[in-house]
Write a structure and sequence with these properties.
2 helices
């Protein structure tokens, strides 16, 4: 029978590893957040989904482990 300690060691994190993040842009134009349309810290030429810091934080909370 396994203990709670054994279980916590084997499942250290239930969230997948985040993908690579683009480097923040030093100067504009800045990309718009795909959720709220606010400016992000990423260059307009950044490929993929760009999120502002607020939406990025909320997305991290949403996808984090619960319980």
């Amino acid at each position: 029978m396994s203990t709670l300690e054994d279980m916590s060691e084997s499942t250290s994190s239930c969230a997948p590893e985040p993908g690579p993040r683009p480097e923040p842009a030093a100067e504009g134009p800045f990309a718009a957040c795909v959720l709220c349309q606010e400016p992000t810290e990423y260059a307009e030429s950044t490929k993929g989904i760009t999120l502002c810091p607020v939406c990025e934080w909320r997305e991290a909370e949403r996808t984090a482990c619960s319980g």
